[in-house]
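step=encode ok
step=design start
structure_in=
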């Protein structure tokens, strides 16, 4: 059973930066996409950033120019660099990996990001 372990969340002031990491417990074959979703209280889970197997990236409009998604395939890890953080970025961030070898996506348990003074 593959597990995704996230790290890097925490409390940061507006304008600050955080880097989230998500490491798979073992190699996942036939990866289609790796990325991050978030869910704020009272809101639905939404896509934040995603990278495909050919390196194409996709970002939510609200984070374009501030967030950057990247991967280290040798380490089965996906990162989310978050800069110029705003209070509205406060949410639980979930790692997501989709594989062509499995119907359901893999999900992490989530890491809380709080942007506040």
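sequence_out=
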């Amino acid at each position: 059973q593959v597990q995704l372990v996230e790290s890097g969340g925490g409390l940061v002031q507006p304008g600050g930066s955080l880097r989230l990491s998500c490491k798979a417990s073992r190699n996942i074959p036939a990866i289609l996409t790796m990325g991050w979703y978030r869910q704020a209280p009272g809101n639905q889970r939404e896509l934040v950033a995603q990278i495909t197997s050919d390196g194409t990236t996709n970002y939510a409009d609200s984070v374009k120019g501030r967030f950057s998604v990247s991967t280290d395939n040798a380490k089965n890890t996906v990162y989310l660099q978050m800069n110029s953080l705003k209070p509205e970025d406060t949410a639980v961030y979930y790692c997501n990996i989709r594989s062509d070898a499995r119907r359901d996506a893999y999900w992490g348990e989530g890491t809380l990001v709080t942007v506040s003074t």
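step=design ok
step=annotate ok -> The mean pLDDT is 96.
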